[in-house]
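chain below, 340 aa
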Amino acid sequence: MEKFELLGKRLPELKAWVHEAGLPAFTAGQLFDWMYKKRVFHFEEMSNLSKKTRQYLQEHANIYHKEPILSAKALDGTVKYLFSSFNGGTIEAVYIPDRTRATLCVSSQVGCKMACSFCMTGRMGFTAQLQAEEILNQVLAIPESLELTNVVFMGMGEPLDNVDEVLRACDTLVAEEALAWSPKRVTVSSIGVLPALDRFLRESKCHVAISLHTADSEQRASWMPTEKAWPIAEVVERLKQEDFSGQRRLSFEYIVFKGLNDDRAHADALLQLIKGLECRVNLIRFHKIPNTPFATTNESTIQAFAEYMNSKGVITTIRRSRGEDIQAACGLLSTQQRKK
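prediction:
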């Protein structure tokens, strides 16, 4: 008989299972406390549970917990971790320490369906969706787990193509009885999968980041095939229905490609597209991948782009590249070569 997975379940779901199992009602709260507050994942160590309860849990339940199988540390302190997944594939998560922040970039899928031409993960194709427990395990199983200040869903995969499990993971991160993080500490990135984006905006208060890269629909479609299914103009119109003036933040990710989307005309088109939105823009240096026509914009051009955007009242920052020497920077995550 397949065991019931406890990690990633919402408290009402766990309470219902505990009731059906005939266990004391308070067992669900105790399990949440052990898993998320005390970070204990073995039933025999849960000392305030009765021996009978622990025996039942051993036979009928499971707490998913897998240590990373490999890690690599970059010169700048960034650490990339490799995890195995249920389907036999592998995923990567990236720990990014900074002066006052410690961010973990987590994966939501093995591979990706979106096939963006500038992304190594997209070249892998799609293998499997990650379950909520596999996503949360990336947060709980790394050595730096207790140091984390932020989690970003910007690793392998398109988070909103796996919206059920991503929402479940986000709920666990922010639920008071679980990890009790502020939603401001969690950011979910997406190319703009409608209607999953609509659902995420309704059901979660976590930050949203949209992978934009160009305001020109035809150009975007040539780089990101999903533009044909979910045009960026429609994505922006949906975002304009939300209130981003409070705690929740909206940002747009914009990889800057040499000669393709880096001049003032492109900036003006971007400003026109996002006009009226309370948002910020993150400019990202392109990290070269094999067999691609894209090139990295020079530093003066990307600086000029940022300065122009800021002069027009849109908060625009240039994201610092981290972990490029271990293939951990934006767009470089891929376990395809390792699998070979």
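Residues 299-311 form the longest helix (13 residues). The two ends are 34 Å apart (CA to CA).
thats it, cya
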